[in-house]
Amino acid sequence: MQLNSNVPSGPLKDKWDKHKFELKRVNPANKRKFEVIVVGTGLAGGSAAATLADLGYKVKNFCIQDSPRRAHSIAAQGGINAAKNYPGDGDSIFNLFYDTIKGGDYRAREANVYRLAQNANNIIDHCVATGVPFAREYGGLHANRSFGGAQVSRTFYARGQTGQQLLLGVYGQLCRQIGLGGVEMFPRRDILDIVIVDGCARGVVCRNLVTGEIESHSAHAVVLATGGYDNVYFLTTSGMHSNVSACWAAYKKGAAFANPCYTQIHPTCITVHGDYQSKLTLMSESLRNDGRIWVPKNKGDKRSPDQIPESERDYYLERKYPSFGNLVPRDVASRNAKLACDEGRGVGNTGLAVYLDFSEAIERDGEDVIRAKYGNLFQMYHKIQDEDPYKVPMKIYPAIHYVMGGTWVDYNLMTSREGLFCLGGANFSDHGANRLGASALMQGLSDGYFVLPYTIGGYLATQSLTNVNTSHQAFKDAEKQLTEKLDKLMNINGKRTVDDMHKELGLIMWDYCGMARNDAGLKTAIQKIQALRAEFWENVSVSGSRKDFNQTLEKGYRLADYLEFGELLARDALMREESCGGHFREESQTEENEAKRDDEKFCHVAAWEYAGEGKDPIRNTEPLVFENVKLTQRSYK
Amino acid sequence: MEEKFINLTLKVWRQKRGEKKGKIETYQAKHISTDASFLEMLDIVNDDLTIAGIEPIAFDHDCREGICGMCGQVVNGYAHGEEKGTTLCQFHMRRFKDGDTIFIEPFRAKAFKVVKDLVVDRSAFDKIIQAGGYITAKAGGAPEANIFPVTYETGELAMNAAECIGCGACVAACPNASAMLFVSAKISHLALLPQGRPEAAKRALAMVRTMDACGFGNCSNERECENSCPKNISITNIARLNREFLAAGVLSTAM
After folding, report:
1. Contacts of residue A47 in chain B, CB cutoff 8 Å?
2. Residue A2 DSSP class
3. Which CATH class, in words, describes the domain spanning A473-608?
4. Pick the CATH number of A266-401 from 3.20.20.140, 3.30.365.10, 3.90.700.10, 3.60.110.10
5. Strand B23-33 to strand A214-218: parallel, antiparallel, or no bridges (unpaired)?
6. Which residues of A touch B44 (CB under 8 A)?
7. Coil/strand/helix, residue A635
């Protein structure tokens, strides 16, 4: 497979403008002749669908939930970055670009990240124009706060629910277009195959989750904005319906999958309790602005936190990283929490927790100020843990929260399959091996509002696409294949539930492919996943009917894909014999236990190509070239 | 509170897809941790039902952290359960005692048809937003973000309204199945902000008209909506909706 990033030539800061000028355009009257399928209604998919329709394209938009307003972008808490420099602390577009490249441990494309930083300010302007109520100062202008991996305050926020407010802004724009007839909305659909005609993506096959019917939809281009694959770990902060199925179907149809081993473990999640637990809950990184992370200095200290004097506490992030303190990037904070617990200094019943303590901030600023900034997060913690975080320090532990890997795309956000685009969390493009806080929202909106609407025009204007509708044989074949797969799943009638097997997969992934990975463990993981996959197709139990509203069947086919995808993730981690960002190979660390990159061998994107059923996938590489930043060992000391 | 394990009897509304009538079925929920959420309790019961060859109970859910608005059931007569300011996914089993019986029903309203078991169709809410619950703005032409100053207090009021998660509890709790709290939250959010003013009158008229057409009832100041709202949206928003609607009707030619 030939991977061409299509990054324009010229100076970094001029690339995007030059590219926009050079892209061919579709004239306004011709846009209505093109149909575009957009899968997903999160920040990326929703904004793309709304903007394409506003430009005049005919858009068909799909989502899993009952309403486009419920996509999982809604759960993002802390904020969205931009380089407005409102606080006057010396921020700039180049600074935002530099922090994002460095935060990603030099494993992202310079040109993509620079474009993201350029678009960030437009995003804030547009969101405000669409009614997003970002926090304000008393003078009426916008307020900013700090996030990990940055030494400026550049994060815009709406209490602890910035993702909700941004998504509802996008949802408003989308609803306007649905009302005007520019977008035809298909809620409660699972996209289970991508249809290729003459080498180009021309449609999708989906399951109607209410009736169980298999439906085909055709278009001139297909856009996937289906979010991340983190639920391969079962216990994550993702929504229960988040899945890899559409991207996995795309992979099997020629869209390479890049860097699946780049997973993000978020340092501040509410701790795991029982085996019945269905998901984990994040406590926003913004809490690290005011909360201090600590463990007891001595192993096995079981005293309650208020009984441990200041001199016997170890504020380990402040001690080890004095210049960034509690605001080091997520991968660094997570590994240090694990290290403290591995040393036997963890707290709580399980010993798998560290304290996030607000007592100093409450004493300094008063409880009301803390409540105004983080009230909903404190309330959420209180409900789940049944402990009042205004009085007792929060107990937190790292958990899977985001994935940087995803479908490979070029500078135009087109995958290695012609006519198939991928946006937002579902693609691999902007965060390298580690994403900084408040950057996911920025990327989703950049891709959907400000990149795809230009680049898809460049594609459509240069194609001579024949007319294709759903009576084409390619659709009939895909429908038949899908129906057979679902029938097979319904007829296993085994003894184990889908959730039970998904939990087992999640444990394999977490134990061998989680916060720390090594050669032997990854090989074990691959064997265990293969064995579990074989058992799944003989021993899973899916009740009900295929032609009905059937949530067990939904979970079943999503898990079937995860059982294949999990192996690719482990393979990618095995082959990348270096540590970078969220991917920590125990064999590759500095004397101080920091991630140690191997730029000679691994300064590239690994893009996996499907080679057919039962065959080993092919690992292609796209070299990463750095012309504007110098590759250094990341230091937050 | 210490974790305990309790046994419960569930009386659950079961209704096949496409059928007009359903009925209450009785199931046992065994060995439930008091630290489990209400939906995790249903997961356990569903796994037991699957193994016993009974089709699991269908219910909507997604984020399980109280923000997506997808979950919602009437538990012992309360939308989202008895705890104030809480979605069902954040309602925990520590609220129950060993041996309790729990009645579980879907959100009921003329405008919310039952899809299956506890799942209802809330697409009427989307239709109301499509009618005008937005600000018209093209991606590219927005002015600089700080050009519209908003006082801190106004920003807070707008945000209080904007927090609505569109779950439908207000409709389920209202004896008239009115959607006034939902509609007023969006109208208030946008009407309070300077960027929302140009379309305020048109928005109020279009959204109220669509709300009526979807079959929601009228408001008679029962305040059940406010009491059941998991995000504590205030009924003062309904007063603001009424003012916006009246002003729009009197002053506008957009009737």
Report:
1. 139
2. -
3. mainly alpha
4. 3.90.700.10
5. unpaired
6. 276
7. coil
